[in-house]
Amino acid sequence: MTQVLLAVDFEFDPILFELLSDIDDVTIVARPADEVELLAHCRTGDADVVIIGRYFPGLDAEVVAAITATGAKVLGFGNDAEALTGLGIGSSVRTDADAVALAAALEDVRDSTIVPPRPAVPPGPAGGQGTIVTVWGTGSSPGRTLLAVNLADQASRQGQKSVIVDADTVSGMVAATLGLTEESSHLASLCRSFSEQPPRLDPDSVPHAVIRDGFHVITGLTRPERWPEIRASVLDTVLRRLAKIYDLVIVDVSDRIDPDDDLADPFYDRHCATRAALDTADIVLVVAAGEPIGLQRLVKLLDTQRAESMREKMRLVITKQRSSAVGSPAETRIREVLDRFVRVVPDFVLSDDRATADAAMLAGKTLHEQNPRSVLAAEIAEVAESLVPSRKRARRSRRVRHGSREV
Predict the structure, then answer these.
(1) What is the pLDDT of residue 267?
(2) Using only C-alpha atoms, what is the Rg of the chain?
């Protein structure tokens, strides 16, 4: 007996139900309304085969991967075999199939061996030619977004073609920091296109805002409640594809990493985007403020299993260094604290140039644009040089401000 979940478009549901009723040894377990109900049924283990339509509500590549992870087989239903294949569905039947053809397809899929779908990105080092740097860290506003934005800016001035991706699903602020007035989310658009069918590898096919030549921005969510649009496996694919186009991909993420509800389905966890960005990264910058509360939070973070698992690719950045917060000399005090409690040495210690940072934020500019002589801008330039050595000295290019284009 073959147990079937029927998850097709509304107009085809009664047709398939009638066809399946004419096939011996086939039982329809359920007819879910959307991907949430579909995955719930799959996880009970009652279904052998899921017949799924091209336009079933919520269908994307990650849903298909989640279905196969439960052990159920997937049979596509639709006339666009190429689109179904792009979603990871290897076998399909056309909408005009009769009971005999449907029965044969069901038998073939049921008896087949599950083979992982062909990867969207060829095997090789993570990130391909480019380098993926995820900027993470503690809470209490240590300046993750400020660092991420200016790191991309300085890298582009050193000859690297850079893009910053706002993957913060709690409070994305990259667009606001750069004075962009985007009404749509570039990242949500990218994830949507990749989940349906990965587009061609072409810079012109990537929606983005242009700050200037060599420095692009992929804006984040326009509203925090849109976080379900950024799924882990799709974000992973997007970042790896971007690394084929750009020399440096900077990913700004939330400090939140654990599920809000321990009993929630991780497939719909708000913070899966942060975990995906950390796992995909070649380098993870862990940012903490150089003040008592910031250092205390850093000590706790470094003691977690997550931080330990990233030890090899983790770089520690201390921001807002100032003697008034920790005593004089500030950098020595900070290093003493970290050596005493966690036996680590910070890779970078950045000054607290609050006047330039505030003025840049108010004007929607980078630190270098606001004040080319800024000590903090120079220090971030050194961080960029350390992470990805300069290819050349970038020429001065015409500035494109407060406007963006989507291509």
Answers:
(1) 60
(2) 25
Task: Decide if 294 contacts 311 (C-beta within 8 A).
Answer: no
**b/e map of 246-277 (b: 16 or more CB within 10 Å)?**
bbbbbbbbbbbbebeeeeeeebebbbbbbbbb
Tokens coding 322: 């100032």
Report the pLDDT value the prediction gives residue 402, as an integer from 0 to 100: 39
Residues of the chain with pLDDT below 50 are 120-127, 393-407
**Can you tell me the distance from the alpha carbon of 318 to that of 295, in angstroms, rounded to the nearest whole number?**
9
Domains of the chain: 2-111 (3.40.50.2300), 131-387 (3.40.50.300)
Q: How far apart are CA 60 and CA 65, in angstroms?
A: 9
Structural tokens at position 44: 């009970």
Q: Left, alpha or beta for 71 (phi > 0: left; psi -120 to 50: alpha)?
A: left
Angle at alpha carbon of residue 144, lines to 359 and 249, rounded to 5°: 105
Is the whole-model pTM more than 0.90?
Answer: no
Distance CA 209, CA 182 (A): 9
Pairing of strands 215-218, 209-212: antiparallel
Taking the mean position of all CA atoms in its chain, how far away is CA 360?
A: 27
In sequence order, the 6+-apart residues with CB closer than 8 A to the CB of 293 are: 140
Q: Are 270 and 170 in contact (CB under 8 A)?
A: yes
Separation between Cα atoms, residue 206 and residue 397, nearest integer Å? 22
Take residue 352 and report the two structure tokens written for it: 């607290």
Cα(81)–Cα(95) distance, integer angstroms: 11
Torsion angle (degrees, nearest 10) of CA 386, 389, 392, 394: -40
Would you tell me the crossing angle of helices 61-69 and 186-196 to the nearest 10 degrees? 50
CB neighbours of 24 closer than 8 A, spacing ≥ 6?
A: none
| pLDDT reported for residue 401 | 42
CA distance 315 to 104: 55
Element (H, E) at 318: strand 314-321
Per the CB < 8 A criterion, the answer to whether 365 and 179 are in contact is yes
Measured distance CA(243)–CA(370) in Å, rounded: 29
CB atoms within 10 A of CB 327: 11
The percent of residues above 90 in pLDDT, for the chain, comes to: 36
